[in-house]
From TrEMBL:
Transmembrane segments: none
Protein name: (2Fe-2S)-binding protein
UniProt keyword terms in alphabetical order: 2Fe-2S, Iron, Iron-sulfur, Metal-binding, Oxidoreductase
Pathway: Alkaloid degradation; nicotine degradation
InterPro entries for the chain: 2Fe-2S-bd, 2Fe-2S-bd_dom_sf, 2Fe-2S_ferredoxin-like_sf, 2Fe-2S_ferredoxin-type, 2Fe2S_fd_BS, Aldehyde_Oxdr_Iron-Sulfur, Beta-grasp_dom_sf
Entry annotated with the keyword rRNA processing: no
Residue ranges of every copy of the 2Fe-2S ferredoxin-type domain listed in the record: 5-81
Gene3D superfamilies: 3.10.20.30, [2Fe-2S]-binding domain (1.10.150.120)
An annotated Gene Ontology molecular function: 2 iron, 2 sulfur cluster binding
Key word Cytoplasm present: no
Pfam family, one: Fer2
Length: 179
C-alpha cells in the first residue's frame, strides 16, 4: 500500500502544492515531478554532494531528504541562485576561476559554496576553524583560509579534480560578497 501526502513547499520563491508518495526524496521531487534538473543525482547515497540544495537557508543533500520533510519550507536550488540577468557572485567566481571541468558537480558545488558563505558570515565554525586558533582567528570570526574552504566544501566531490580552482572561486566569491 502506497501512502501519499500533500505538501506545500516554496521552491526558488514559487509555491508548489503537490501530493507525493511519502517515500519520494526531495531530489526526485525536484527532478522528476517538477522538472528542475539543475540539481544532479550523483551517487544517490549522500556521498558526493551533487544534489546539494538549501532548505530554509541550510544546505542539505536532497537525495537523503524525504520530500514530506520539507513541507512548509523554502528550498533554494541552483536555479534559484542568481537572477535572470545577473549571476550570483559565487557563479561569477566559478566562471572567472574555471571552477568546473565537465560541469556535472558544478550545481552542487555552487549551492554548497553559496551556503558556505552564509555559514561563514554568521560565524559558524568548522573542524578547520579550531586549527586556526593558533593565529587568533577564533577571537571573532574564523578566517576563510584555503584549509577552511576545503574543509567546508569536503562533502562535494569533483571527479575531474578541479579542487584548486573551486577553492580559488570560493575565496574570490567571499571577497566579492564582503565588500
Amino acid at each position: 500500500m502506497v501512502s501519499e501526502h500533500g505538501i506545500a513547499v516554496r521552491i526558488n520563491g514559487t509555491l508548489h502544492e503537490i501530493t507525493v508518495d511519502v517515500r519520494t526524496t526531495l531530489l526526485d521531487l525536484l527532478r522528476e515531478r517538477l522538472g528542475m534538473t539543475g540539481t544532479k543525482k550523483g551517487c544517490d547515497h549522500g556521498l558526493c554532494g551533487a544534489c546539494t540544495v538549501a532548505v530554509d537557508g541550510e544546505r542539505i543533500l536532497s537525495c537523503l531528504a524525504l520530500a514530506v520533510s520539507v513541507d512548509r519550507s523554502a528550498v533554494t536550488t541552483i536555479e534559484g541562485i542568481g537572477g535572470s540577468d545577473t549571476l550570483d557572485p559565487v557563479q561569477q567566481a566559478f566562471l572567472d576561476h574555471d571552477g568546473f571541468q565537465c560541469g556535472y558537480c558544478t550545481p552542487g558545488q555552487i549551492s554548497s559554496a553559496h551556503a558556505l558563505l552564509r555559514e561563514h558570515a554568521r560565524g559558524d565554525l568548522s573542524a578547520a576553524s579550531f586549527d586556526g586558533d593558533r593565529d587568533g582567528s577564533l577571537a571573532g570570526h574564523p578566517v576563510l583560509t584555503e584549509q577552511e574552504i576545503r574543509e567546508r566544501m569536503a562533502g562535494n566531490v569533483c571527479r575531474c579534480g578541479a579542487y584548486s580552482n573551486i577553492v580559488d572561486a570560493v575565496a574570490a566569491a567571499a571577497k566579492a560578497t564582503s565588500q
